[in-house]
Design a protein that fits this description.
Shape: flat
Radius of gyration: 28 Å
Strand content: 5-15%
Structural class: alpha+beta
Number of strands: 8
Helix content: 55-70%
Distance between the termini: 55 Å
Length: 432
């Protein structure tokens, strides 16, 4: 199995809602067999049960677990409806991976199978007393997890909580990925072009799909073994149609086989966040844009999402992003060239759609201006021209949208709360 196949299998496992509950089901059966085999003669009298009592308790537990499973599934359906209707369908890929939800389902299915397996062992002269007590303890744990589950999703399904979660994940992936790439690049991260001499071979995708991830270490090692330079022509997150070029092979004695290369590049039906921090930013922007739609008309939610977007942009602005990276082997020889998103890409993704859809909202205009001016004062000089460009575009949008001088002046006033901070008189505006 290639690395790409294993990656896709891992993604399926993380997103699956049935694998962990199935393991809980099997574990419950095994624990029931163990509980039956344990001698319970030394138990206190209060821990002993008659056959009718044990049968009644276990029957009630089996019914209760089925009902609780149905309840959790109902909550899941409601979450899907809310996420796709008021948040972003892209968020669902992250929600499927929630470990608490899988733990709750596994506990319920495990308690069900444990109790059901014990029922068949009850006889008039033989009662699995330890097993019945364990079933009662499992019910207590299940109810506690259910309360934690309800509390978690009651609070975490708010747009601001989801925005904070997604933004934090995106920042983590951005920092970790950038450090890994810069650490593997030759000559202290200075870009280098592939050698012009030697043949150029093209590796094409066999199937269409979105580039979800690739293995830079193994691609670099593969290029070193074949004494060539591999150039990945697509960004992570790009859709690749069948037969399109995904990698150029410069040189090689001989050149690596196409399957060797494509086996290190995972394609899928949609983007993932593992190596794609821009996907997290995409989800944040989607939530803000959905809040600005006429059907929802909730600019305050968009302002709250902009808080998380601003945090992400501050992290991206200090990361030293480039649109191209060259990774070298152990001797520092360039072996792998990968495309990257630079600062301007992230900034445009973060503010363009929100500016276009929110230009009619004074609150959004004020919050965007505050965000951009905050970037001007906090980021390195190399990032500032792109910020000034976005400030100029915001100013033009305000000029087009607000013909009344008073409203225009209000919309041009930066406000970190959108509307709510102290009104400041117009002064010299940096960058626009």
């Amino acid at each position: 199995m290639s690395w790409a196949s294993r990656f896709r299998l891992l993604q399926y496992t993380k997103a699956s809602l049935w694998i962990v509950p199935l393991l809980g089901l099997l574990l419950g059966v095994l624990l029931a067999e163990w509980a039956v085999s344990v001698d319970s003669t030394g138990l206190p009298a209060g821990w002993r049960y008659s056959a009718s009592t044990a049968s009644g308790v276990l029957t009630a537990i089996v019914g209760a677990m089925i009902a609780l499973l149905g309840f959790v599934v109902t909550i899941g359906v409601l979450v899907v409806q809310q996420a796709t209707g008021t948040l972003s369908p892209r968020y669902m890929r992250l929600w499927y991976r929630d470990r608490l939800q899988k733990a709750v389902l596994a506990t319920f299915t495990g308690t069900f199978s444990f109790s059901f397996a014990l029922l068949r062992t009850i006889e008039s002269d033989s009662v699995p007393d330890i097993g019945v007590s364990m079933a009662g303890a499992a019910v207590s744990v299940s109810l506690l997890l259910l309360l934690v589950y309800l509390n978690r999703f009651t609070h975490n399904l708010r747009p601001v909580a989801i925005a904070e979660l997604v933004g934090r994940m995106g920042e983590t992936v951005l920092v970790r990925g950038e450090a890994a790439i810069l650490g593997a690049a030759p000559h202290a991260g200075e870009p280098a072009a592939p050698a012009d001499s030697g043949p150029v071979a093209y590796v094409r995708s066999e199937h269409g799909g979105v580039i979800q991830a690739f293995h830079p270490g193994r691609l670099t090692a593969l290029a070193e073994r074949h004494d060539c330079v591999l150039v990945v022509t697509r960004l992570i997150g790009d859709y690749v149609p069948p037969g399109a070029v995904v990698v150029e092979v410069h040189g090689g004695t001989p050149a690596p086989g196409p399957r060797q290369v494509t086996g290190l590049i995972a394609l899928g039906s949609e983007r993932t966040i593992e190596q794609d921090p821009a996907f997290a930013l995409r989800v944040l922007v989607d939530i803000a844009v959905r809040a600005l739609s006429p059907a929802v008309n909730d600019p305050t939610t968009a302002v709250q999402v902009l808080n998380q977007i601003e945090t992400f942009l501050h992290t991206a602005g200090r990361a030293g992003l480039r649109d191209r990276y060259v990774l070298g082997d152990r001797r520092g020889t360039p072996r792998l060239v990968v495309q990257g998103r630079d600062w301007e890409d992230y900034l445009q993704l973060a503010v363009t759609e929100i500016r276009e859809y929110g230009s009619s909202s004074v609150q959004i205009c004020r919050r965007l201006r505050s965000l951009l001016e905050g970037l001007l004062t906090a980021l390195p000089p190399g990032t500032l021209p792109a910020v000034r460009t976005e400030l100029a575009l915001l100013r033009e949008s305000v000029e087009r949208e607000y013909t009344d001088p008073a409203r225009r002046a209000l919309a041009r006033t930066p406000d970190p709360q959108g509307i709510g901070a102290r009104h400041r008189p117009d002064g010299p505006v940096r960058g626009g």
